[in-house]
Amino acid sequence: MAIIEFPKDMKWGAATASYQIEGAAFEGGRGPSIWDTFSHTPGKVLNGDNGDVACDSYHRYEEDIKLMKELGIDVYRFSVSWSRIFPTGTGEVNKEGLQYYHNVVDALVENGIEPMCTLYHWDLPQALQDKGGWNNRETVEAFANYSEYMFKEFSGKIKSWITINEPWCASFLSNFMGIHAPGNQDPQLATTISHHLLLAHGKAVTRFRALGVEGEIGYAPNLEWLEPFSSKQEDIDACDRGMGFFIEWFFDPVFKGSYPEFMVNWFEKKGVMLTIEDGDMETISQPIDFVGINYYTGSVGRYKKDEDLFDLEKVDIGYEKTDLNWNIYPEGFFKVLLKIKDQYGSIPIYITENGACYNDEVENGSVKDQRRIEYIKQHLTSLKRSMDSGVNIKGYLTWSLLDNFEWAEGYDKRFGLIHVNFNTLERTKKDSYYWYKQMIGNGWFDKE
Predict the structure, then answer these.
(1) Which of 315, 341, 356, 393 has its CA at a distance of 20 to 30 angstroms from the CA of residue 25?
(2) How far apart are CA 393 and CA 378, in angstroms?
(3) Is 378 contained in some domain?
C-alpha cells in the first residue's frame, strides 16, 4: 500500500470561468463578449451551443457555494466577466454586475472559502474587439484600468488575483489556429497578441503594487510536456520548440525580462516578427507572488518538416485517453514542474487547473466516474513527486467544480466533479466529488 500524503498547509480547491458557468448573458447590464459573438456564429461551436444559460450560476451561485462548502475546499477560483463590469470594456461601471461579484465573494468568505479571482479568462468585451481587440495596445491600457478598478473595489475581500488565464490559448489557439474566439488564423497576429497579453499582465501587476493592495498576484499559463520520440537531436529540438511555444515564450519574459532567443529566431525563420516597444519588457517582468499552472496532457513528438509551425509531429504511442481524446500523461506533469523549478527557481506555484473529461451520466441518482478519480490520483501522485523533489507547490485546484460550457466543444464534454443536467440545471454530485472530499479531509489517499 502506497500512501500519498500532503502537507497540512496545502490549499485545496476547484476552478471555473465566467462564460462557462454564469449564463445570464443578456441580464444585469452585461455587455456582449467575443464568446457571445463566436458561439452565435454558425459552425464555430459544436451543436451550435452557446453560453447564454450555461450552468445558470448567475442565479444559482448560493447553491453552488453550498456544494463547495460540503466539498471542503479551501479556495474557489472563479473569473470575472469583464463586460459585466464594463459593458463596453471601458467607461461607466455597471453597478448591477459589480454587485453580483460582491454577492459571490461575500458568500464565499462567509462559508470559509478563499476567493481566487481571475481577471481575464478569454471573454474580451466585444466593443474592444471591434477596435482591434488584443492587437490594439489600447486594449492593454483598458485591461490595466479594469484591473485597477477591481483591485480597489475588492481590496480586503479578494486576496489572491490571477491576471491572465492561459495566454497561449488567448493568443495562438484563438488567433493562429482559430479554434477559439475570435477565430483568426494569422500567426503574426497571434504572436503580437501574445506580447500584448503579457504586457497587460505586467501593467496590472504594476497597478496592484502601486495601490499597495493586500494579497498576492500571479498569472496562469497552460503547459504541456513533449517527450522526444528518439535521442536524435532533431527530435529533441522539435520538442523543445513545441514546449517553448507554451513554456519559455510565456515564462521567460515574466521571469527573465526577455523572450527566448531560440524561439524568436525560429519565428523569424517562419516570417513571424516580434515588435517590442521601449519599456515593455520592464513592465512584463514585474515581480509576481506566484504562478498558476494549468496542466492536462502531453505527447511524444518528433521532427517532421512543415508538419506545423515548429516542424513537429506528435506520435500516438498508445497512451490511454480521456473522452476529449487527450493523452493521460501524469509523468509529464512531474517533468514539466521540475523543468519550471530548474529554469526559473523556486517560484510559489498553485496548480490552478488539472482535470479530465469523462462523459459519465447520472444513473439511479449517482455518477460513477471512476476514471476521473484515477486521473486525479495519478496526477496528485506526480504532484507529490514534484514536491518531494523541491518544487514549491502551495495548492491544487481541480478543473472543474461543475460540468459547463466547454468552449468550442459546447456541452458535449464534461469536466466537473458535479454533473449538470443542461435541460433542468439540476446538480448531481459525482463519485469523484465524494472521493475528493474525503481526500481533502484526510490530507492523503491510498494509491492502490
Answers:
(1) 356
(2) 17
(3) yes
Residue 448 pLDDT > 80, yes or no? no
- Candidates 148, 248, 353, 406; catalytic one: 353
Q: Show Cβ contacts of residue 186 under 8 Å, excluding neighbours closer than 6 positions.
A: 175, 176
Q: What's the CATH number where 288 sits?
A: 3.20.20.80
Count up the domains in the chain and report the number: 1
Question: What's the pLDDT score for residue 306?
Answer: 86
For residue 402, list its beta bridge partners. 418
Q: Evaluate whether residue 4 is within a structural domain.
A: no
Query: Can you give the C-alpha Rg of the chain in angstroms?
Result: 21
Calculated CA dihedral for residues 134, 138, 140, 145, nearest 10 degrees: -140
User: Catalytic pick from 148, 166, 224, 406?
Assistant: 166
Q: What's the rounded Cα separation, in Å, for the pair 309 and 144? A: 32
114-120 and 160-165 strand pairing: parallel
Backbone angles phi, psi at 333, to 5 degrees: -60, -50
User: Which position has the grid cell 458535479?
Assistant: 418
Is residue 447 included in any domain, yes or no? no
Residue-wise pLDDT tens digits, 135-145: 999 999 999 99
Give catalytic status of residue 166 as yes or no: yes
What ranges make up the beta strands (E) of 197-319? 216-220, 222-228, 290-303, 312-315
State pTM to two decimals. Answer: 0.98
Q: Which DSSP category does 4 fall into?
A: E
Contact 215, 114 (CB under 8 A): no
**How large is the average pLDDT for residues 224-246?**
98
Q: CA–CA separation, 114 vs 78, rounded Å?
A: 11
Question: Could you tell me the three cell numbers for 152?
Answer: 480597489
Q: Is residue 125 part of a domain?
A: yes
Is the four-CA dihedral 438, 440, 446, 448 of positive or negative sign? Answer: positive
Q: Looking at residues 14-41, what average pLDDT do you find?
A: 98
Annotation marks residue 353 as catalytic: yes
| Structural domain span for residue 19 | 10-442
